[in-house]
Amino acid sequence: MAFKIQRKPKERVELVSLIDMVFILLVFFMVTSFAIRMPMEERGLSIPAPENALGRAQIVIQFIDENDIFWMDETSASVVEEVEEYFGYLSPERLKNKIINDLIAQNRVSLEVLNEKINNLRMRAGQDPFARFFVLIRCPNHIPYFQVIDVITKLSDTPYRNIRYGCVGGTLNQIRECRRIYTVVEEDAQGNRRKNIRIDL
Amino acid sequence: MAFSRKEEKKGISLPGLIDIIFLLLIFSLATFSFTDSSLQEEKGDKGTYDLELPKARITETFKTDDVLQTLLFQIENTDSEDPSSPKVVYVLWPSWEDSLDINQAKMNAQRDSLFAVFPDDFLRMSDRDFTRTSACTLMHWALQTYKNEHFREPSLANTIEIRAVRNTEFRIINYILEQCSAYGDTIPRFTLRTLSGQEVASGF
Description:
With about 200 residues, chain A is of the alpha/beta class. Chain A has helices at about 15-35, 75-85, 90-105, 110-125, 145-155, 170-175, and strands at about 40-50, 60-65, 70, 110, 135-140, 165-170, 180-185, 195-200. Helices cover about 40% and strands about 25% of the residues of chain A. The model of chain B is unreliable at about 35-45 and about 195-204 (pLDDT under 50). At the A-B interface, helix 1, strand 1, helix 5 and strand 6 of A face helix 1, strand 1, strand 5, helix 5 and strand 6 of B.
């Protein structure tokens, strides 16, 4: 009987697998080198300087604490008007306190809600290139600046750059201690009459 | 008897090919830089607008050894290990003769005494007293001098930089913002350098 010698087939590296591996290694090194480099880099936020002229603001953002913010916009006028109407018999000082307490109770928001409101504002600004918004940011001196810069960055990052802002130091207590807070009827740029809040600090 | 020799067909295996195609796809996706199509204005169509928008980008990436391009206020703790230690401001001045990075510019600031420490009680000071501190006086002088030398006309390119540790109090940054604001369109923008990742918490 003749024995058959089984010859082993020649072992070769398959071209397809080789390319496969090379690409995997390439992608792996690219991703990891990017991830390693990231913390060593600085991010530069290009932010417009504030416009700190005296005047009107459609929105007031008053930082109370790092996660506690008082937000006032055009809807706040109805709160003031309501209190003026139903509590007009109070002394001016008590009426002022009542207005401010009601405003604060209804418009005190967390950082998360603030971000939602800012996103809504950005959406409105993004829909109309001719609309102009002015946001006044007030912040107590002790709060880390990053909270405010975060808000400014979001407000500045709109397609039409039509949200402008002012930035001043100030506390909620200064608003509480204002001389007077009341509504006034004014005409806007389109000639529409509307009620606005005036705060005499 | 005739022997028939069977030869294996050599060819590219389909699963391997698909594998490579997918890898190439992922690779090109990962390296492709996306452009924000929402920022591109269409021209000519009804209902669209042609607007001249400022070209300044909101974010860009720096390296700490990048050459200093403009005036930079660096605010840090006097003791980098202790976040409650007093803040110090360094005025880092770029050099047009030598290319300076931040570290070299900081050494120059130390040599030329272009730094000042904020008092411990600066948060309790009145606005008037705060603006008279040596740190605010230094920043005011630096900004005014730099503006007179380099920013003679309003331009979007006129920018200064701020590099501050994360726990820097708003009052310090707001002072710089107010100073920029006072110059109107002559200094329309500022760049805030922030470190990404864990290093932010530990300062520079």
